[in-house]
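Predict structure. Chain length: 297.
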Amino acid sequence: MRRSKRHMARSLIQNKFMSKKVIKKVLLSLGCLLIIFVAWQGLKKVPMEGDWQEQLKVISTAEFNGDLVTVKNVRNFRYSPTEKDMHPAYYDKKYDLTQIKKVWYVTEPFNENQSAAHTFVSFEFNNGDFLAISIEARKTKDQIYSIWKGMLRTYLLVYIAADERDVLLLRANIRKDKVYVYPVKLEKPENARLILTDMLTRMNELVSTRPAWYNTLFANCTSSIAKHVNKITPGRVSIFSWQLWLTASADELALKHGLLDTDLSIEQAREKYSVNEASERVGDVPSYSLDIRKFKD
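Prediction complete.
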């Protein structure tokens, strides 16, 4: 009986020892795999060429000349009757940086994903021009956007200068996603110029000296906008805000930090600044941007 107990105790000790050895081997293997994965990601170079999707094929650039900036390849696509039926168009346009009248913050919560949204900024000028800057993942023709793949080095980061009839008509009239166009509250009027200049400068860098990867968490549309805001006013938006990742609530974050020019609650603001009904009613006309902003008091 005593021998049997000793044998059982010895077996338990041996099994425990073996279990620890197995666990150590598993952890060591996982650690090695993690190191290899991190090294692979770190060494992965940003490709400057590729078989890009049609709407991401031509890149916008900006040429500064004092108070004037010429933006080349402002995208002005039409999508009809479906999003896949693209009618490509671009134009070059000169903008006076001293004549920015207002800045607008646009959010598009996705119908298919209740936690995510696309956000971008649009600049209104005194002469009635509008210039939208949309920060996106640049995908090749064989790629489909994935939140999970976006956490890895899968897509390029790209800034698209666009006509509002491209980026808003697509989202409101074709996709039928909810679209909100909020007026931005600036601490100083000159901040509008600073933000646009900074965004256009970054747009140039991404296609020349500083190409970068898109990242679902740290370099997405919303977190990138926050970086521009914080560059003008350090600490204005917390980089640890969960709404920078779960972007469907990005407008709530903007309101919380005093970035939206309204005293309304987020529910009231969404109701007032929704442009879907107006966009459907107005359609593709030259005065589109002005017409959809006739908000009810």
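Summary: The chain has a mean pLDDT of 89.
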